[in-house]
Amino acid sequence: MTEKIQLPPARYEYGGDEFVFVELDQAMSLEANFAGMAVTNALREEAIEGVVDICPSNASYMVQVDPDRLDPRELVEELRRLESTVGTLPDDYVLKTRVVDVPVLFNDPWTHETLMRFRDRHQDPEATDLEYAARINGFDSVQGVIDAMTSAPWIVTMLGFVPGLPFCYQLVPRDRQIQVPKYVRPRTDTPERTFGFGGAFAVVYPVRGAGGYQMFGMAPAPVFDLSQSLPDFADDISFPNANDVLRYRAIDMAEFESTRSEVESGTFRYRIREVEFEPASLLADPDAVNRELLEVLYR
Amino acid sequence: MSELLVRAGGLYTTVQDTGRFGYYHMGMPPSGAMDVYSAVVANMLVGNPDGAGVLEGTYVGPTLEFTDDRVVAVTGADVPVTVNDEPVEPWTAIRVGPGDVLGFAMIRAGCRVYVAVSGGIDVPVYLGSRSTYTLTGIGGHQGRKLVDDETLPLGSGDGSARPGAVVPEELRPELAGPAELRTVIGLCSYRLTEDALASFLGTDWKVTKDADRVGYRLRGGKLDFTDREQPFGAGSDPANVVDLGYPVGSIQVPGGDEPIVLLNDAVTGGGYATIGTVISVDRDRIAQTKTGDVVRFTSVDLDTALAARRDRRERIERVRREIAR
Amino acid sequence: MTTIKAQMPGVFYRRPAPEKPVYVDDGEEISQGQTIALIEVMKTFNEVKADESGTVAEFLVEDGDEVDVGQDIVRLGEV
């Protein structure tokens, strides 16, 4: 069992007159992310006039405010109040969210072709990104690191960098987190829907573009759809929300292709289940809670 | 169908309004007019709602031909404006008719011009705004800057425009440099040494060639980070922090030598330490600085930032009264 | 003195690419609308076109120099 991480007192900072930035910890941890999630969820439910947007991030969060309608100092008072109640994650605090199955084809030909073009920007030009990640994380094989990434689910801790990009942190203790540095120099190209990895975060690139994360595979289903043609995108152009629990599931080329054709014909739907769990329980016994989360997902 | 003919798109002209809000949490910045004051005042002059669609031109303005009777106003940068090659006054509501051509000469000061037309630039509203966000190609006119020889849809005005209305000199923005940018220091400013923070505030920073709607990259000094063992998940570079949200107007110093002020089309978050935020009112000011201009940062508290915002609103209301006279 | 002025600020280049020859040499005749240089600003390279015909008497800016709006970049001589 790993020690529970004690968070320092939250730091409240004004990002000019239109933003309040709250740092829960300088280091990434599930504890910091859950604390931020509890406060931002509570704030969202209060629907305070003058709160323009609520932006959870990894070990911090940010609130955009219209200072003509809400004094940022009053907002900070309310945030402090929420911190002292839900932000301490009482044992009975329950998180309502959804758990989602996200298929990924690891070692796919498209990211492989791209990563080969950018070997000169990589720490280990002789290996693929997955081989490198397996080696520096102490796995005997590429399969070992894939198994580690797919066995326990992840939580969406932040959206951003580009619209719709989910940062995902695995629901395991810090000593089991996989860590991989970003490319030495960023690439000028990353295929759309690349499953990438940087620091301790897994991402799916919403669109093609520059990028510095290691490339491990490709998701057949989109996370971002400007045309909103798929049913899962009817309400929003971005599929993932902060707090979503995502299970990355390794698939083969046959499933990749059948999922692609469902996406192209507009019939694809993510497997989604509503779920509740106690962050305190997860921190105490992650394997047990993760088992339950996956049971709910595939029931 | 009433339309505006774009004879020449200019260097980088986009449709903007006062911005797209409520999507920051998913990584979409607000876009919108960089110099809000000038955009709102341009709309007032032609009788539009404050948040109607306007054109924002950069350095080289567009050339526009009208196809019906309209009222047009140009605000923002100091630039000679012409109708059919005859000089006309900026910050003034001007009556134009079919075949009239609005043009710009070379800017004398400032960076961005705003063109409001009675009825507004009536591109489709996308996610609550007409603003263009070119990086993802959404909003505005086909999600991109204007090109030569195309047309823009115009809305129908409500006839409230008052041709001849003028914004008095004292209510036009000061464009002479250097630009003083009032800044609330904070966020992750603890990452800088005390000397570096003093040097940040004491340096005359020069706007580089890469300054655009995404952000302004500046040059002129070197800022040191304090030594520390990097926290878990922060990455190895001393400029790195665990990825976090970036306020619009926030300042980061990726390599320690080139501060970047993030603006309307910027990324919403990332892994660089932010050291402060330019107050919302002074984003209007930085929007009117151009490559080669000098900017300085002054440390202010939240009270000053809020007071500056109230002042701007009062100025806007004074303009409204002047125009209505 | 007739000059061609920079219409925008940025970094001035006399060649389309580092390994390419200059657009025009001193003493060369140019015609209105001809591209004579590039200015890089806002992450794009923008062609500088001659606003009138003439002979290039001299370039007043070096390749790679920063220029400001309205700055003279070329002095034109008699045709």
UniProtKB/TrEMBL annotation, chain A:
<protein>
    <submittedName>
        <fullName>Urea carboxylase</fullName>
        <ecNumber>6.3.4.6</ecNumber>
    </submittedName>
</protein>
<dbReference type="GO" id="GO:0004847">
    <property type="term" value="F:urea carboxylase activity"/>
</dbReference>
<dbReference type="InterPro" id="IPR003833">
    <property type="entry name" value="CT_C_D"/>
</dbReference>
<dbReference type="GO" id="GO:0005524">
    <property type="term" value="F:ATP binding"/>
</dbReference>
<dbReference type="Pfam" id="PF02682">
    <property type="entry name" value="CT_C_D"/>
</dbReference>
<dbReference type="InterPro" id="IPR029000">
    <property type="entry name" value="Cyclophilin-like_dom_sf"/>
</dbReference>
<keyword id="KW-0378">Hydrolase</keyword>
<keyword id="KW-0067">ATP-binding</keyword>
<dbReference type="GO" id="GO:0016787">
    <property type="term" value="F:hydrolase activity"/>
</dbReference>
<feature type="domain" description="Carboxyltransferase">
    <location>
        <begin position="10"/>
        <end position="231"/>
    </location>
</feature>
<keyword id="KW-0547">Nucleotide-binding</keyword>
<keyword id="KW-0436">Ligase</keyword>
<dbReference type="InterPro" id="IPR010016">
    <property type="entry name" value="PxpB"/>
</dbReference>
TrEMBL record, chain B:
<keyword id="KW-0067">ATP-binding</keyword>
<dbReference type="Pfam" id="PF02626">
    <property type="entry name" value="CT_A_B"/>
</dbReference>
<protein>
    <submittedName>
        <fullName>Biotin-dependent carboxyltransferase family protein</fullName>
    </submittedName>
</protein>
<dbReference type="InterPro" id="IPR003778">
    <property type="entry name" value="CT_A_B"/>
</dbReference>
<dbReference type="InterPro" id="IPR052708">
    <property type="entry name" value="PxpC"/>
</dbReference>
<keyword id="KW-0378">Hydrolase</keyword>
<keyword id="KW-0547">Nucleotide-binding</keyword>
<dbReference type="InterPro" id="IPR029000">
    <property type="entry name" value="Cyclophilin-like_dom_sf"/>
</dbReference>
<feature type="domain" description="Carboxyltransferase">
    <location>
        <begin position="25"/>
        <end position="316"/>
    </location>
</feature>
From TrEMBL, chain C:
<keyword id="KW-0444">Lipid biosynthesis</keyword>
<dbReference type="InterPro" id="IPR001249">
    <property type="entry name" value="AcCoA_biotinCC"/>
</dbReference>
<dbReference type="Pfam" id="PF00364">
    <property type="entry name" value="Biotin_lipoyl"/>
</dbReference>
<dbReference type="InterPro" id="IPR050709">
    <property type="entry name" value="Biotin_Carboxyl_Carrier/Decarb"/>
</dbReference>
<keyword id="KW-0276">Fatty acid metabolism</keyword>
<dbReference type="InterPro" id="IPR001882">
    <property type="entry name" value="Biotin_BS"/>
</dbReference>
<keyword id="KW-0443">Lipid metabolism</keyword>
<dbReference type="InterPro" id="IPR011053">
    <property type="entry name" value="Single_hybrid_motif"/>
</dbReference>
<keyword id="KW-0275">Fatty acid biosynthesis</keyword>
<feature type="domain" description="Lipoyl-binding">
    <location>
        <begin position="1"/>
        <end position="77"/>
    </location>
</feature>
<protein>
    <recommendedName>
        <fullName>Biotin carboxyl carrier protein of acetyl-CoA carboxylase</fullName>
    </recommendedName>
</protein>
<comment type="function">
    <text>This protein is a component of the acetyl coenzyme A carboxylase complex; first, biotin carboxylase catalyzes the carboxylation of the carrier protein and then the transcarboxylase transfers the carboxyl group to form malonyl-CoA.</text>
</comment>
<comment type="pathway">
    <text>Lipid metabolism; fatty acid biosynthesis.</text>
</comment>
<keyword id="KW-0092">Biotin</keyword>
<dbReference type="InterPro" id="IPR000089">
    <property type="entry name" value="Biotin_lipoyl"/>
</dbReference>
